[in-house]
Amino acid sequence: MFPKCNIIRMFYLYKKILPLALLACNICWGQMPCVLPFGSNNPFASSADNTSVWLNDLDICWVSDHLRRSKIEKIVGGSVVYDFSDIDPKITEYGAQANTNVWFIINTESAYQFLDGIQIGTSNKFIAAGDSSYYYYDNFIDTLVKYVNSKVPSWKVKYWSADNEHASLYVTAYCPGLIDTICGGLAAQEYSNLLEHTWNTIKAADTSAKIVYGGIGGGALDEEYDYYYIPSLKKLYAKDPNGFFDFFDFHDFNVYQQYKTNSRGKGLIYYRNLLQSVGFTNKPIIMKAGATHTGIDTCANNSRLQEYQTELQQSEYLFKRFVWNIANGVKLILYGDIREDSTQHDTYSYNGLIYNGIPDLSYCDTSNCDTSFFKPCPDPGDGIKKLSYYTFKLLNEKLKNFDFDTIDTVNNGNDNVYIYKLLNTVTSEPLWVVWWDYWNDSAITTKNTAIKTGNTNWLTAKITDAIPDFISGTQLNPSSYPSFFHDTIINIVNDTLYLSLKQSPIYIEKDLVQNISNGEQSEIPGKKIKIFPQPFSTHTTLWIAEPLKNATLTVENIFGQTVKQIKNINGQTITLYRDNLPNGIYFIHLTQDNKVIATNKIVISN
Predict the structure, then answer these.
(1) How many CB atoms lie within 10 A of CB 389?
(2) Is the domain of 535 the same as that of 456?
(3) Confidence band (pLDDT; 50, 70, 90) for 48?
């Protein structure tokens, strides 16, 4: 016969582990798609050698990348042929080695005019603009989609964008000078025609495919909106209320405090209102491109990069941008890049989650090395992971099985505090994501807040920092992940969590160890804390049913802050002195062999 406590423990583990085991089996059998709405933009462009390794390590569900018609389509001997050798490595990395969902952006400009194509400025590239050029465009799209979907067994690309930040193509093609109503209208009409052709051709080849209105760049000028982007949306709505697209995409690069908008102050709220004003009242929004940088580059062509930012600040931006947009209705959001782009002084130069080794030591040994020009100088080294890498990794792990369609926004009346509650689809337990925009409260270093849990069976909660408490990823040993994320156990008082927020966002979840100890089964049966006197004014005695060996007693206030600690406790009694603690309620827990073995409450009163 099993002792009753062992049976309880086995039943508890069965309840917790069985759903996870079934989930793992479903993944093995290919029955469980990856549903996390977070991903990476253009990871293959960062490093062909390590892409799938990083994607798998980060557990990334979604990637986006570009397929360039001008590199695939060729005329040989008077006939059009297609050379897919340029995209085969991407397909292998994404579809076979990493098993991600993919969103491909089709760069639709051709190297050939096909009689009636329109030249893009002074380049040698053309956009379709008539029956002949659209005939070849349709053939290219049909061949491309069927080829890509055939390369990996049971794999189909989920989303297809018709161009990206396409004002650079269409406005350039139709407006040789300044954009105005006439040339902008012609450009808008042609993009609406292209999107209609794209929709019809791809849907015929793959009925499950989703079409994306090519993303609007974060640096787009107001006149591009007024004369081109908005007219193109209106023309699409006039063609069909569905607009020939399933999703709308926009991009938002910015500094860490501005995680809700792009550099021109346009974000989710603006684009949602824009779509509604045109008539697309329920059009889902997804976000392909967006990031912020580390360091500083005063020679960059983008003023954003001339503002110094730490790895901590980049991590904040990544985390808050992801969660805030998803919580407010975005269906999918990506970050770019994984490894830093090798181009210098450019918008995308220092956005990556991994350093690329530029500038190297040879540059920094010269007299030209000015730390106001590059920080750090030298770069710590190609392949060194930033704090943001680990922030992303933990985010995917923490939120892997949660329902993103029913996120609750918790309003507890505290300015600059953001609280979102998610429900685990496997365990049915909630998790809160919380942060404080501390730069808006510059007079204080911590902010106290409270959350009603609504879970009377919770006795304690586990608080985990979303960002490692270090200056740089160079200080971290990857093999020690996730131990460098700080955890705190907080007691729940009258169904309420009292929090003292700092710079790092936090996760709040059920503390399984302490809740087992108090509610379901003690890790060391019989260990209970008896307290006399209670309340007390100067000191009290704690008695334990079984002898302790090198145990630790921790005293916390109602905000979960440790205010007193006694280590190396042996025997069955502990004398706890008040010292300078004010009147109030405190929570104590005993740990032994890295396990919480008992908890209780003490009251100090004069």
Answers:
(1) 27
(2) no
(3) low
